[in-house]
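User: Could you go from structure to sequence for me? I need the amino acid at each position, not a summary. Structure tokens:
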């Protein structure tokens, strides 16, 4: 992927691509190591120079932007790569080459996450663990191999005592996450949900649909749910995976229409359960001008959104 293409994909996909790029760089042959390391670094610098303005962005985007700026500093980038190289070396020895996928970034408030993924082990680490030394990395890989989770917790507790810098680093990234999950944050990287709502309201409801109290992007990409509407709290959420330059506007319009139908029609109480997708709802849903092609796009692309 060329540097320019990073400007057209979501932060979630950009992060995935960057993790692959950095892992490949640290494992490059000696004669290509310098070239690949610089290539990965230049990509961070390029993305930093093309970050969107932050006013109104969701917590996820603010965190992604902060990480990009952090990694665009050569010293921070070098620290991450040194840590990454040490850890991958020990994971290769303990788990086997190709048996795991490693991601190091401030993905959440947690320091680490380890879970199975398609026959591999997905290992996600917070940037705050960048100060792990050779001993820490060796013990970490050994604990993952043998699933010694209690020993792993003890090892990380010792790491935290020896490296007080981890607190500063977690605080640095948490400081940018200033917005509650359900605060009204409609602006994304490519689409502003305020504009999507207004256009859909005019097109499908004659401009008479009251605006939901809160409209925001989902905190994470969801490959199965494109949106949701909370009837009790009047909160409308759209899957952040749709905030991409290659997602047509009519798809956003349809998803917005779908969720606004929930607001308009409410929930039917049968006495034993609450029904949201009634026959009446489905009939109204099919009246959307782009119903068929929007559904076709979502079904075809849901796994990559």
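Assistant: Here is the amino acid at each position, in order:
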């Amino acid at each position: 992927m060329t540097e320019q293409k990073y400007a057209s994909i979501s932060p979630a996909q950009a992060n995935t691509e960057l993790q692959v790029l950095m892992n490949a760089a640290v494992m490059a042959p000696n004669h290509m190591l310098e070239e690949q390391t610089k290539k990965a670094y230049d990509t961070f610098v390029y993305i930093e120079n093309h970050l969107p303005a932050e006013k109104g962005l969701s917590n996820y985007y603010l965190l992604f932007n902060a990480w990009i700026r952090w990694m665009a500093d050569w010293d921070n980038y070098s620290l991450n790569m040194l840590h990454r190289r040490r850890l991958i070396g020990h994971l290769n020895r303990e788990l086997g080459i190709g048996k795991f996928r490693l991601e190091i970034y401030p993905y959440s408030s947690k320091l680490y996450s380890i879970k199975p993924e398609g026959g591999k082990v997905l290992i996600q680490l917070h940037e705050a663990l960048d100060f792990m030394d050779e001993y820490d990395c060796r013990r970490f890989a050994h604990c993952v191999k043998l699933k010694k989770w209690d020993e792993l917790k003890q090892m990380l507790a010792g790491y935290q005592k020896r490296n007080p810098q981890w607190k500063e680093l977690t605080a640095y990234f948490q400081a940018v996450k200033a917005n509650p999950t359900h605060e009204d944050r409609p602006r994304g990287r490519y689409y502003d949900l305020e504009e999507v709502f207004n256009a859909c309201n005019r097109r499908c409801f004659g401009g008479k649909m009251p605006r939901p109290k809160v409209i925001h992007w989902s905190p994470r990409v969801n490959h199965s749910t494109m949106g949701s509407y909370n009837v009790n709290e009047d909160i409308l959420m759209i899957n952040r995976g749709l905030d991409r330059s290659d997602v047509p506007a009519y798809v956003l319009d349809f998803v917005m229409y779908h969720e606004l139908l929930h607001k308009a029609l409410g929930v039917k109480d049968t006495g034993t359960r609450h029904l949201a997708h009634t026959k009446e709802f489905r009939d109204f849903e099919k009246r959307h001008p782009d119903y068929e092609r929007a559904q076709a796009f979502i079904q075809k692309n849901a796994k990559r959104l």
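One structural detail worth keeping in mind: The chain has a mean pLDDT of 87.
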